[in-house]
Amino acid sequence: MERVFSKLRSLDAYPKINEDFYNRTLSGGIITLVASIIMLVLFVNELGLYIHSYTETQLVVDTSRGGKLHIHFDITFPAVPCSLLSLDARDISGEEHFDIRHDIFKKRIDSHGAVIEVRQDGIGAPKIEKPLQRHGGRLEHNETYCGSCFGAETADDECCNSCEEVREAYRKRGWGMTNPDLIDQCKREGFVQKIKDEEGEGCNIHGSLEVNKVAGNFHFAAGKSFHQSTFQLFELISLQSDTYNISHRVNKLAFGDSIPGVVNPLDGVQWTQEAQNGMYQYFIKVVPTIYKGVRGRTIDSNQFSVTEHFKGSDLGLFQSITGVYFFYDLSPIKVTFTEEHVSFFHFLTNVCAIIGGVFTVAGILDACIYHSQKAIKKKVELGKFG
């Protein structure tokens, strides 16, 4: 056994020196203190890198096909009443949606930004007690309601059972509904009074859209939109003003779910209108993005870049294109963010490198200073006795 211990002692790479041969110096103590501080700072920094994750970015060609694009928005119009604000969407595939109401919420706000009412526009017509029938009489017992379209019918059996349906029939004809008080459905639904009650108010509109994953646009129009021929027009009824202030604030705009650490460029952006009427345009390049979290969570979303432009309206047909437009296009490049942690062995290796490196450099520096001081002291002694 003693022979085994003797062989192990011969493998000792750290031979011990008798303390009688130690020579402690002031410079050595200072260097030791400074080296210890440096090692501590570097260790804390390395520990922070180990505890926190880091993100690797990879760019690849987006080969996905089809699918849907989810758009989340929250926009405030301080000078456009909710009853005159509509949302429309269209894309290059030819799909169009006008006056979208699904998953859309509106908040009536006063001139100070205080919320007056929160509502979700309903789908379909409200219940009307004994409404006017197409034949001119009132709805009788057990009789099916079929309201008049007031000359805008395209077929003999067409019915307009709400003010919105009458307006839609007029829009298809290309007519302007100049006096809603003469429309039985609008009069009973209080359409005119609703617009008058909201005069001078603003509107916050928020919600989400699901559109095809192709280039397109969605826009907020001051007035109810409709489609005729190849042009996008807007109905300007007599109750509305000739001009609209489309000043707005984008509280939130996101294409897909939120990605940790990514701030969308339009969040909090505000624009104030100075010219009379016009359309404010945002040109957006959507970049498909996949985020892979360190715990296995995956988020399939999008980032985007944006440029802005205001186009004043000209006299004539396009005087009524007032609104805020968001034109979006998809990038062919997909970004993948992968969140990772430094491994424990990598952390341990770096800590050993820090301790060994600082200790070695400090030792070399201490030796140089010690030998320099010793040489100077020797010269001084030789000078005294020489």
TrEMBL record:
Bilayer-spanning residue ranges: 21-44, 344-369
Keywords, alphabetical: Membrane, Transmembrane, Transmembrane helix
Principal location class: membrane
Ranges of residues in domain Endoplasmic reticulum vesicle transporter C-terminal: 149-366
Matches recorded under Pfam families: COPIIcoated_ERV, ERGIC_N
Metal-binding found in the keyword field: no
Residues of the Endoplasmic reticulum vesicle transporter N-terminal domain: 8-97
Coiled-coil ranges (or none): none
Domain of life the protein comes from: Eukaryota
Localisation per UniProt entry: Membrane
Name the UniProt record assigns to this protein: Endoplasmic reticulum-Golgi intermediate compartment protein
Organism: Solanum tuberosum (Potato)
